Amino acid sequence: MTIRLADAAATEEFGRRLAAHLRPGDVVTLTGTLGAGKTSLARGLLAALGLPGEAPSPSFAIVQPYAPPETAIPILHVDLYRLDGPEQMEELGLDEALWDSALIVEWPDRAGEGAWPQALALTIAMDPGGGRILTAQVPSGWENRWPI
């Protein structure tokens, strides 16, 4: 499925709509080039879940946790851009976090092939005419929640 997002505000709004369908145990992966809108989408999602203020990019922290009462459900916003390789994934403890948290993962390719086969995989690309184009690969666990 492909969705056209006119601008950064539309990208954040899509994240807000996505938040209404997110639950603990979910993984949403965000793939795209630098500046494509991955963090904007995540910020919209986190704002809709109640996060006050603007969410920082987790680029340097790698994992930015959020939990009630700050957000409606526990969320780990993950940015794997700075990982040297998939072997560093185990140190992050992300699989254990899925028991009670949702993961929003930027740069999922750094985790290695097949890291989250159950993920809602979103790819954001620059539209030559302006805006962004979002493509979704919807796994079976999301079929009754999609489209949003």
Automatic annotation (TrEMBL):
<dbReference type="Pfam" id="PF02367">
    <property type="entry name" value="TsaE"/>
</dbReference>
<dbReference type="InterPro" id="IPR027417">
    <property type="entry name" value="P-loop_NTPase"/>
</dbReference>
<keyword id="KW-0819">tRNA processing</keyword>
<keyword id="KW-0479">Metal-binding</keyword>
<comment type="similarity">
    <text>Belongs to the TsaE family.</text>
</comment>
<dbReference type="InterPro" id="IPR003442">
    <property type="entry name" value="T6A_TsaE"/>
</dbReference>
<dbReference type="GO" id="GO:0002949">
    <property type="term" value="P:tRNA threonylcarbamoyladenosine modification"/>
</dbReference>
<keyword id="KW-0547">Nucleotide-binding</keyword>
<dbReference type="GO" id="GO:0005524">
    <property type="term" value="F:ATP binding"/>
</dbReference>
<dbReference type="GO" id="GO:0046872">
    <property type="term" value="F:metal ion binding"/>
</dbReference>
<keyword id="KW-0963">Cytoplasm</keyword>
<keyword id="KW-0067">ATP-binding</keyword>
<keyword id="KW-0460">Magnesium</keyword>
<dbReference type="GO" id="GO:0005737">
    <property type="term" value="C:cytoplasm"/>
</dbReference>
<protein>
    <recommendedName>
        <fullName>tRNA threonylcarbamoyladenosine biosynthesis protein TsaE</fullName>
    </recommendedName>
</protein>
